[in-house]
């Protein structure tokens, strides 16, 4: 049973999109090899890294398990990677599971009771855990104890079970929707931000080294610029560009090769894909930049309203290309510029742009 929370727009990305931030099968297979193993190798997220480093160093000094850690932020920014780094830095084993995998409180009890002292428990998508499991987790986090209910009805008894001290690392795309009692039991929350292009360039370089791909700095910059601030996407685009470079050229990834490869995959210079551009083009060309209602816009691009709203729009809004207003969707000046189109001018605005009105006449002589 799920917690009943709506899916996050991040989670509902269809996996067949090259630019989705959620992991597909190929990602999962390659990602293990690309994950940084220690905090020093982890690129970017300076603030979270420094804060976490203090938490871990202090725990090591005290010889105790650190406080529970909550990592929040969109998918593909390195939450799983950081949880593994936490375990490696503490020299502790790690157990990995996720909210949706824990259907019953008993599932959680089984995991908790088999933890060893100091072990790190990584709970991905913690906001999607069932309510009874969530309540069991409160007690486990605070008192390192759970009550296992044996039997049913009036004869049911609660058997207390002591747990060894462990560190929970929870990950969520929606920290704001976690129930406060759960949120409050984390001693440290790290908010992961989208990566800057220069940081993604370093990610691409590092991954290229591990995958044995020859790449020059301009090639890495080209891939980074199209990766939507997300290392998982950067790594995926790098693999597609590598294919192109190996099949059509000599294997070296330069700016030109990266740009041509990503053109084949319909990822433009700003990281927009076919659907993103279709939405923008409809908004600009059919509706003059809006405002237009979501369902009308969706019909124009032949997609479901939810797909437009949850898959294309979040990135377009983040990029400042589209705005959601109470009257409908509108395109920004940057959207016109990005598609190389000229916004229509309102008659008065057009005249004002041409000249100053004097003596009741515009500079062009019209009244
Ligand atoms: N700071 C980083 N430096 C280098 N590589 C990174 C960094 N962050 C993430 N990556 C790479 O990006 C990929 C995705 O990272 P990860 O699986 O940790 O993301 P996530 O936030 O846990 O995603 P999800 O929420 O979907 O589980 C991994 O291959 C990892 O190697």
UniProtKB/TrEMBL annotation:
<keyword id="KW-0238">DNA-binding</keyword>
<feature type="binding site">
    <location>
        <position position="232"/>
    </location>
    <ligand>
        <name>ATP</name>
    </ligand>
</feature>
<dbReference type="Pfam" id="PF05491">
    <property type="entry name" value="WHD_RuvB"/>
</dbReference>
<feature type="binding site">
    <location>
        <position position="80"/>
    </location>
    <ligand>
        <name>Mg(2+)</name>
    </ligand>
</feature>
<feature type="binding site">
    <location>
        <begin position="142"/>
        <end position="144"/>
    </location>
    <ligand>
        <name>ATP</name>
    </ligand>
</feature>
<dbReference type="GO" id="GO:0000400">
    <property type="term" value="F:four-way junction DNA binding"/>
</dbReference>
<dbReference type="GO" id="GO:0005737">
    <property type="term" value="C:cytoplasm"/>
</dbReference>
<keyword id="KW-0378">Hydrolase</keyword>
<dbReference type="InterPro" id="IPR003593">
    <property type="entry name" value="AAA+_ATPase"/>
</dbReference>
<feature type="domain" description="AAA+ ATPase">
    <location>
        <begin position="65"/>
        <end position="198"/>
    </location>
</feature>
<keyword id="KW-0234">DNA repair</keyword>
<keyword id="KW-0227">DNA damage</keyword>
<dbReference type="InterPro" id="IPR008823">
    <property type="entry name" value="RuvB_wg_C"/>
</dbReference>
<keyword id="KW-0067">ATP-binding</keyword>
<feature type="binding site">
    <location>
        <position position="185"/>
    </location>
    <ligand>
        <name>ATP</name>
    </ligand>
</feature>
<feature type="binding site">
    <location>
        <position position="329"/>
    </location>
    <ligand>
        <name>DNA</name>
    </ligand>
</feature>
<dbReference type="Pfam" id="PF05496">
    <property type="entry name" value="RuvB_N"/>
</dbReference>
<feature type="binding site">
    <location>
        <position position="324"/>
    </location>
    <ligand>
        <name>DNA</name>
    </ligand>
</feature>
<dbReference type="InterPro" id="IPR004605">
    <property type="entry name" value="DNA_helicase_Holl-junc_RuvB"/>
</dbReference>
<keyword id="KW-0963">Cytoplasm</keyword>
<feature type="region of interest" description="Small ATPAse domain (RuvB-S)">
    <location>
        <begin position="196"/>
        <end position="266"/>
    </location>
</feature>
<dbReference type="GO" id="GO:0006281">
    <property type="term" value="P:DNA repair"/>
</dbReference>
<dbReference type="InterPro" id="IPR036388">
    <property type="entry name" value="WH-like_DNA-bd_sf"/>
</dbReference>
<keyword id="KW-0233">DNA recombination</keyword>
<feature type="binding site">
    <location>
        <position position="195"/>
    </location>
    <ligand>
        <name>ATP</name>
    </ligand>
</feature>
<dbReference type="InterPro" id="IPR036390">
    <property type="entry name" value="WH_DNA-bd_sf"/>
</dbReference>
<dbReference type="GO" id="GO:0005524">
    <property type="term" value="F:ATP binding"/>
</dbReference>
<dbReference type="InterPro" id="IPR041445">
    <property type="entry name" value="AAA_lid_4"/>
</dbReference>
<feature type="region of interest" description="Large ATPase domain (RuvB-L)">
    <location>
        <begin position="15"/>
        <end position="195"/>
    </location>
</feature>
<feature type="binding site">
    <location>
        <position position="34"/>
    </location>
    <ligand>
        <name>ATP</name>
    </ligand>
</feature>
<comment type="function">
    <text>The RuvA-RuvB-RuvC complex processes Holliday junction (HJ) DNA during genetic recombination and DNA repair, while the RuvA-RuvB complex plays an important role in the rescue of blocked DNA replication forks via replication fork reversal (RFR). RuvA specifically binds to HJ cruciform DNA, conferring on it an open structure. The RuvB hexamer acts as an ATP-dependent pump, pulling dsDNA into and through the RuvAB complex. RuvB forms 2 homohexamers on either side of HJ DNA bound by 1 or 2 RuvA tetramers; 4 subunits per hexamer contact DNA at a time.</text>
</comment>
<feature type="binding site">
    <location>
        <position position="35"/>
    </location>
    <ligand>
        <name>ATP</name>
    </ligand>
</feature>
<dbReference type="InterPro" id="IPR027417">
    <property type="entry name" value="P-loop_NTPase"/>
</dbReference>
<dbReference type="GO" id="GO:0006310">
    <property type="term" value="P:DNA recombination"/>
</dbReference>
<protein>
    <recommendedName>
        <fullName>Holliday junction branch migration complex subunit RuvB</fullName>
        <ecNumber>3.6.4.-</ecNumber>
    </recommendedName>
</protein>
<dbReference type="GO" id="GO:0048476">
    <property type="term" value="C:Holliday junction resolvase complex"/>
</dbReference>
<dbReference type="InterPro" id="IPR008824">
    <property type="entry name" value="RuvB-like_N"/>
</dbReference>
<feature type="binding site">
    <location>
        <position position="79"/>
    </location>
    <ligand>
        <name>ATP</name>
    </ligand>
</feature>
<dbReference type="GO" id="GO:0009378">
    <property type="term" value="F:four-way junction helicase activity"/>
</dbReference>
<feature type="binding site">
    <location>
        <position position="80"/>
    </location>
    <ligand>
        <name>ATP</name>
    </ligand>
</feature>
<dbReference type="GO" id="GO:0016887">
    <property type="term" value="F:ATP hydrolysis activity"/>
</dbReference>
<comment type="subunit">
    <text>Homohexamer. Forms an RuvA(8)-RuvB(12)-Holliday junction (HJ) complex. HJ DNA is sandwiched between 2 RuvA tetramers; dsDNA enters through RuvA and exits via RuvB. An RuvB hexamer assembles on each DNA strand where it exits the tetramer. Each RuvB hexamer is contacted by two RuvA subunits (via domain III) on 2 adjacent RuvB subunits; this complex drives branch migration. In the full resolvosome a probable DNA-RuvA(4)-RuvB(12)-RuvC(2) complex forms which resolves the HJ.</text>
</comment>
